[in-house]
Amino acid sequence: MAPKLKLIYVDAKALAEPLRFLFAYGNYQYEDYRITHEDFRSDKSRFPYNKIPNLEIDGKLVHQSMAMARYFAKQVGLAGDSIEEELLIDTAVDTLADYRHQLITYFYDTNEESRKRKKEQAFQIFLPFYLGRLEQQVKDNNGYLVNGKLTWADIVLAGVQDYVNYMAGYDLLKDYPALKALEQKVLGIPSIKAWVAKRPDTEM
Amino acid sequence: MAPKLKLIYVDAKALAEPLRFLFAYGNYQYEDYRITHEDFRSDKSRFPYNKIPNLEIDGKLVHQSMAMARYFAKQVGLAGDSIEEELLIDTAVDTLADYRHQLITYFYDTNEESRKRKKEQAFQIFLPFYLGRLEQQVKDNNGYLVNGKLTWADIVLAGVQDYVNYMAGYDLLKDYPALKALEQKVLGIPSIKAWVAKRPDTEM
Q: Are B126 and B150 in contact (CB under 8 A)?
């Protein structure tokens, strides 16, 4: 019997959306449970390491969004066909995390002065660097991040891009045609397209 | 034939040491190539995404230390026996990265004021929190991070602890007996013990 799945997150795409894409892709039934920020903050200690997103798998709580995404990617056949390919996919996923982190570290900084400094660094140095390199990587891999075929690294890229764009304040991929095409290719997968069409409309 | 391996990093344990532990554990032959910081900074663009550690596997460069560690962990039998166990290991590894990151974000901040603020947050909030939770996790798992048996998550914990302690300025595990015992257990594995006894003496 398929395990009972309950995804727990705030009412946002953000770090949970790659998982939701994978659930759509694999046609998984799950409860998409959304709590308010207030509810999350009121008792974080319910969650392993006080972190969300969380997933209840048959009542057992797990966390770490990328570890969970890898777990489901294995189940739906998007995690690579050899340990060499898995290495390249994991590397791409960690590089996407580095890229995302450049925005997160600026966006959530509460100190005005250091926030301004980080924003400059992110927009002038890190984002052009990462986007340029990722663009080249996708060109070198026939339109995908790894080995010219769809993997969960591509799902992560497309799944978190709305969140990354929200933090940036504009569509970061607009001047990167290979990355843009890859994002659109993922968003065009019928099961994912159907999810995106019906998902709750959220700010990020 | 075994692939030709060349690990490229600065003259430090830091993020490369878990890989060196795995190489020792699996009795891999590799070139432990150490460049100066000046050499690294003079032309970072030699490396994928300007990052080290890097590994040449039969001449092909790969990066991302945790992705590489997972790849070799699979080869030496420390990556879990089921996708459920792999999920728990990956989650522990990402949690260790979060814990480490609390120190990295303070330690490398060049702004005096924000560095001070981050240091306070790290030492007063994040480190006690993570170390307390990790201590409990090890107690709950019979002396290991996952399922009461040695996995590459334990190798990562013990491998980067010197680096983490260096940034903290003292042995962070000294008041956490289960974590300390786990670190010592890993350091007591004969192949790893032999490597630690002969490795270059470095600051971090």
A: no
Mutate which: A94, A112, A137, A147, vs B, most B CBs within 10 A: A94
Q: Is A2 on the interface with B (CB under 8 A)?
A: no
| Interface contact A85, partner B, CB < 8 A | no
Q: Do A64 and B90 touch (CB under 8 A)?
A: yes
Residues of chain A with CATH 1.20.1050.10: 83-188
pLDDT in tens, chain B (204 residues): 788 999 999 999 999 999 999 999 999 999 999 999 999 999 999 999 999 999 999 889 999 999 999 999 999 999 999 999 999 999 999 999 999 998 998 999 888 888 999 999 999 999 999 999 999 999 999 999 999 999 999 999 999 999 999 999 999 999 999 999 999 999 999 999 999 999 999 999
> Shortest Cα distance from A127 to chain B (angstroms)?
12
| Model pTM score | 0.97
Options 1.25.40.10, 3.30.1490.190, 1.20.1050.10, 3.20.20.70; CATH of B83-188: 1.20.1050.10
Q: Which of A70, A114, A129 sits opposite B114 (nearest CB)?
A: A114
Asked if the C-beta of B118 comes within 8 angstroms of chain A's C-beta atoms, the answer is no
Residues of chain A with Cβ-Cβ distance to B66 below 8 Å are 90, 94
Closest partner CB to A49 (pick from B48, B50, B133): B133
* Contacting residues of A for B64, CB less than 8 Å apart: 90-91, 94-95
- A-to-B residue pairs, Cβ atoms closer than 8 angstroms: 76
B169: left (phi over 0), alpha (psi -120 to 50) or beta: left
What is the β-pairing status of strands B5-10 and A54-57? Answer: unpaired
Residues of chain B with CATH 3.40.30.10: 5-77+191-198
The answer to whether A115 touches A109, Cβ cutoff 8 Å, is yes
Sequence-distant (≥ 6) Cβ neighbours of residue A187 within 8 angstroms: A158, A193, A196
Instruction: Kindly state which CATH superfamily the domain A5-77+191-198 is placed in.
Output: Glutaredoxin (3.40.30.10)
CA distances from A138 to A25, A87, A160 (A): 21, 16, 17
Q: What is the ipTM for the molecules in this complex? A: 0.96
